[in-house]
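Re: that backbone. Tokens:
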């Protein structure tokens, strides 16, 4: 029984800790553009996805506006946010419904 409770609580606690840590980090600490700029293949990425352009808030998000590393950094940040939200949603649903206890 104790192991089942651990299966419920541990994922939720891990997600909440990760969200807390990432939310306390400044934008500069989360910026991975220098790392991305050093990777080979950004030219190919730019050629392949140069057509991607959309508005986010009041800013245009594109390779032309941000550069290839900037676009990848933006998409990575939004992906991390989405992943955190999905993990917290499913972890909290398991916790609240007790689905891990039924196994």
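Recovered sequence:
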């Amino acid at each position: 029984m104790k192991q089942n409770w651990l299966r419920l609580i541990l994922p939720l606690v891990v997600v909440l800790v990760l969200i807390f840590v990432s939310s306390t980090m400044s934008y500069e600490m989360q910026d991975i553009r220098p790392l991305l700029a050093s990777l080979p293949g950004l030219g190919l990425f730019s050629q392949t996805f140069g057509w991607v352009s959309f508005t986010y808030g009041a800013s245009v998000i594109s390779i032309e506006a941000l550069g290839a590393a900037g676009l990848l950094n933006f998409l990575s940040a939004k992906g991390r946010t989405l992943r955190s939200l999905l993990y917290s949603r499913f972890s909290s649903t398991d916790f609240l419904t007790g689905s891990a206890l039924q196994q």
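The CA atoms of residues 42 and 48 lie 10 Å apart. Strands lie at 53-56, 59-62.
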